[in-house]
Amino acid sequence: MMKIDIITIFPEMFTGPLTESLIQKARDKGILKINLVDPRSFTKDRHHVVDDRPFGGGPGMVMKPGPLYDALKSLKAIKGRRAGSGSPLKKPLVIYLSPQGKALDTGTARALAKHEHLVLVCGRYEGIDERVMGWIDREISIGDYVLTGGELPAMVLIDAVSRNLPGVVKEAGSVENDSFFNGLLDFPNYTRPAVFMGKGIPDILLSGHHAKIEQWRRQQSLKRTADKRPDLLKKLKLSREDKKLLKQ
Fold first, then answer.
1. Helices 240-247 and 210-228 sit at what angle, rounded to 10 degrees?
2. CA distances (Å), 37 to each of 41, 86, 155, 189, in order?
3. What is the pLDDT along the chain (248 residues), one digit of tens a residue?
4. What count of other Cβ atoms lies within 10 Å of the Cβ of residue 215?
5. Residues 243 and 216 in one domain
6. Which ranges of 63-113 does DSSP label H, i.e. alpha helix?
7. What is the pTM of this model?
8. What is the SS3 assignment for 178-204?
């Protein structure tokens, strides 16, 4: 089972995305456990203030270090030592959703899926106090643009990671055929009816010849990637057969 703790001042935002579809099914099966932590509950003033003005002046507000530190500490996400032992405590991987982080891709999602426990920190305003970064293991971004907070990126990361957990997606082959899984875009897909508004489907898909269908799909993936994302194709080491299929 994977556990994901989310530190956010807007826990209600996660109600819909994390209680529907495959993610809810994964939670029901005990494959995925999700916990929401509001840093406001760790404040010590009656107004539960989690932000303040930046030192040095300037626009916007910054999330205070105290509530975030206490939230992380409550999740055993602060490095430490076991009592009476020199061995370090096993701690979760702490991820800060930030536009300054490494771009989320399939490889990253698959790597994160191997962890048992993730803690996602959702920033707001102008970001978090820099001193909190000492307890952050990794920064991850979902693109070169700025959102109002880290909640939406956290939802995207959870969705991308969870479908790589065994048992979440019913057919493992479905994940393996996803775009980017093998560095290529997905091939075209068709379903019934065989003719829709006068448009048919490629004859090869009706042939029943599985080897030729797989070859056609590989060729289409290569073609799509060459047409839409040639930058991806440049990163791949193509086989002689792949080069032949592309040339055709």
1. 70
2. 8, 30, 15, 41
3. 999 999 999 999 999 999 999 999 999 999 999 999 999 999 999 999 999 999 999 999 999 999 999 999 999 998 754 444 455 557 899 999 999 999 999 999 999 999 999 999 999 999 999 999 999 999 999 999 999 999 999 999 999 999 999 999 977 666 665 667 788 999 999 999 999 999 999 999 999 999 999 999 999 999 999 999 999 999 999 999 999 999 99
4. 14
5. yes
6. 65-74, 106-112
7. 0.87
8. CCCCCCCCCCCCCCCCCCECCECCCHH
Tokens coding 143: 């693109």
77 with 3: CB under 8 angstroms? no
The boundaries of the domain holding residue 218 are 178-247
Residue 38 shares a structural domain with residue 151: yes
Catalytic residues: 99, 126, 163, 178
Give the strand pairing for 2-7 and 117-122. Answer: parallel
| 209-218 contacts, C-beta under 8 A, 24 or more apart | 215/245, 216/187, 217/187, 218/187, 218/242, 218/245
Please state the φ and ψ torsions of residue 103, each to the nearest 5 degrees. -65, 135
Q: Are residues 111 and 57 in the same domain?
A: yes
